[in-house]
């Protein structure tokens, strides 16, 4: 009898973590490596948020809390949804977890039965399909390609929905592409959902405040209020507040769903870190001036990377509306041979050879469900980005 669960065969380790780990190993071995795989800001957590965490420690707020969040944080989350999205939620409609990933996982575990389908636009965050599989569901991945700027169309959504569909997972601005859906584009999708009342919507709004060039973020339940009763609106403090390590994600939705998610969490991790919760209260209620300043830096870095990548023959890089990623198409590089002798048959071949020959670590597109592409996180210094893109240019120029 095998010792390990058959469930493990359904999933694979996170490719983004694997790339980051490989880059760290090469650095430790003395290689000059520029790592562009990690999806986290290089900014430090703002001082007033850090101070709130320190204050929580000094005041002895280091014990167990309610399973899915302290009252102060739930109130702050309700205020945030009202202020930013025009959505009214009560505290008993809010769940707080150890990061956005746990929120999504709890919801899927609480709702999916064997064979239930979940529509996932591709490219997608690497964890979506695997979390669906772990919960016993079936990921239905729909490719949104370069010609639609990596955005799902209403026709594609309509075609993907079946009687077995339980959820649509919706992420805007997107990881890995940075593409953001306009209100008109989102309205067209919600019109489809209104024709299918058995389909629920799970949003991933983690990059809400990382929006550029006048792009106005909106979320499904805000655009179509009639979806409110079957939407789980998910967010967190990791990205815009530079709090990835604090591990606080949250969601609001129908009370019955939130209660079920609380039950799952009570038998897994129990409450999120108490100190992080008090820091998150300050993040949501305190000054947000730093976000605009950080976004100015992100825009500068994005423009640098997009310009340098689009100067490469065989590479096409759209300008993203938000987040801190670009997702260039490398169709023109497939079929060529790298200077080191590697035949570039896939985007994974491209990224492996790039790392080995020029010391630039990026994540291959197949990990996100759409090829041939790769993802760059430009949440690092201008100097590192310029050097990395210079190396990518040299690598591509040497392809034959």
TrEMBL record:
Its EC number is 2.6.1.-. It catalyses: L-aspartate + 2-oxoglutarate = oxaloacetate + L-glutamate. It comes from the Bacteria. GO terms for molecular function: L-aspartate:2-oxoglutarate aminotransferase activity; pyridoxal phosphate binding. Keywords: Aminotransferase, Pyridoxal phosphate, Transferase. GO terms for biological process: amino acid metabolic process. The keyword Transferase applies. CDD domains: AAT_like (cd00609). The keyword Transferase applies. Pfam families: Aminotran_1_2 (PF00155). It is an enzyme of class 2 (transferase). Its cofactor is pyridoxal 5'-phosphate. Gene3D superfamilies: Aspartate Aminotransferase, domain 1, Type I PLP-dependent aspartate aminotransferase-like (Major domain). Residues 32-392 form the Aminotransferase class I/classII large domain. Belongs to the class-I pyridoxal-phosphate-dependent aminotransferase family. Homodimer. PANTHER family: ASPARTATE AMINOTRANSFERASE. This is Aminotransferase. It comes from Celeribacter marinus.
């Amino acid at each position: 009898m095998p010792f390990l669960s058959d469930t493990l065969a359904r999933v694979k380790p996170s490719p983004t973590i694997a790339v980051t780990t490989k880059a760290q190993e090469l650095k430790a071995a003395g290689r000059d490596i520029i790592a562009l795989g990690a999806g986290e800001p290089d900014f430090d957590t703002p001082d007033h948020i850090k101070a709130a965490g320190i204050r929580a420690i000094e005041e002895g707020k280091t014990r167990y809390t309610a399973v899915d969040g302290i009252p102060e944080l739930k109130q702050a989350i309700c205020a945030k949804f009202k202020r930013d999205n025009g959505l009214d939620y009560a505290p008993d409609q809010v769940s707080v977890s150890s990061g956005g990933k746990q929120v999504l996982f709890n919801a899927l575990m609480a709702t999916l039965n064997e064979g239930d389908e979940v529509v996932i636009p591709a490219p997608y965050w690497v964890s979506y399909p695997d979390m669906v599989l772990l919960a016993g569901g079936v990921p239905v991945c729909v490719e949104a390609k370069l010609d639609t700027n990596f955005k799902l169309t209403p026709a594609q959504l309509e075609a993907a929905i079946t009687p077995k569909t339980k959820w649509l997972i919706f992420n805007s601005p997107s990881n890995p592409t940075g593409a953001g859906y306009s209100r008109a584009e989102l309205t067209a999708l919600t019109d489809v959902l209104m024709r299918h009342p058995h389909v629920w919507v799970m949003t991933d709004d983690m990059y809400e405040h990382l929006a550029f060039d006048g792009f106005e973020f909106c979320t499904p339940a805000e655009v179509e209020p009639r979806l409110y009763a079957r939407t789980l609106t998910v967010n967190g403090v990791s990205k815009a507040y530079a709090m990835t390590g604090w591990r606080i994600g949250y969601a609001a939705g129908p009370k019955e769903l939130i209660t079920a998610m609380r039950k799952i969490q009570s038998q897994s991790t129990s409450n999120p870190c108490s100190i992080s919760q008090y820091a998150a209260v300050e993040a949501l209620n305190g000054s947000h001036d730093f976000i605009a300043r950080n976004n100015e830096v992100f825009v500068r870095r994005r423009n640098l990377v997009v310009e340098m990548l689009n100067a490469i023959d065989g590479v096409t890089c759209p300008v993203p509306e938000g987040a801190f990623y670009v997702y260039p198409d490398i169709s023109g590089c497939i079929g060529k041979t790298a200077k080191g002798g590697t035949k570039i048959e896939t985007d994974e071949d491209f990224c492996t050879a790039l790392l080995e020959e020029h010391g630039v670590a990026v994540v291959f597109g197949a990990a996100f469900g759409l090829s041939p592409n790769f993802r760059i996180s430009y949440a690092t210094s201008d100097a590192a980005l310029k050097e990395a893109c210079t190396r990518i240019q040299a690598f591509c120029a040497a392809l034959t």
